[in-house]
Amino acid sequence: MSIWEVLAVFAAGVGAGTINTIVGSGTLITFPVLLATGLPPITANVSNALGLVPGSISGAIGYRAELRGQTARVLRLGCTALVGGLAGAVLLLALPSDAFDTIVPVLIALALVLIILQPRVAKAVQRRRESQGTEPHPHGGPALHAGLLLASAYGGYFGAAQGILYLSLMGLLLDDSLQRMNAVKNVLGAVVNGVAAVFFLFVAEFDWTAVLLIAVGSTIGGQLGARIGRRLRPNVLRGFVVVVGSLAIVQLLLR
């Protein structure tokens, strides 16, 4: 890489780590930059997945206050995310690189609609529970695990807007604040990126320079994202998710 390519990849890593911690979709920053340096798509994807692991961990650490009291939930959902992430990593090497091109923008659009409607849906669900005398499942129940399994498989495969899918699912099926769900999202992202990275280390080609640059950049970005994201009010955070998700859809459609 030239010095300008090195700086571009590092800056993309910082941006991706920041965006991933607040919302998700950081891959849409790093992946095009890696392609621009001349890396083949699969090598760029694998290098990106490896490099973003430290950023995911950094973001989760930055949200540690919001994770208090959620250990059982994180362990349960984390196991589901791990299985899905590993399945997605295997699919990356088994399927054509454009296998998800058609369905991903649709998934993101649906997730954004759910995030926009989440406050109204939550109130409607709460009224229904009160009328029926039932309590919400503390960990989301089978529906959340099924959705997370599929979202994590997608995350292990490519990962763009994976966090948005997580937030929409948890917002629909968990009775909790958006910031606490965002904290869980960061842990799940770390789990998926981590298991995919371990798998790729043994079976896929990657570029160590790109991996290290993104790793350092995303670690810094993870801390920046946590500082910014934790200060956002729920409505502002929800609006930020919608804006980033909409840009993600446009970029995916134009690829």
Number of domains: 1
Could you tell me the strand content as a percent range? under 5%
Average pLDDT works out at 82
Distance from first to last alpha carbon: 23 Å
Strand count, sense and barrel status of the largest sheet are: none
What is the molecular shape?
globular
Order of helices and strands: HHHHHHHHHHH
pLDDT < 50 runs, ≥5 residues? none
Secondary-structure class: mainly alpha
**What's the number of extended β-strand segments?**
0
Any idea what the radius of gyration is? Answer: 17 Å
Helix content, binned percent: over 70%
Key descriptive features of the protein:
255 residues; 11 helices; mainly alpha; 82% helix; single chain
Question: How would you portray this structure in words?
Answer:
This protein is mostly helical. The protein contains 11 helices and no strands. Helix 7 (141-157) packs across helix 9. The protein is globular. The mean pLDDT is 82.
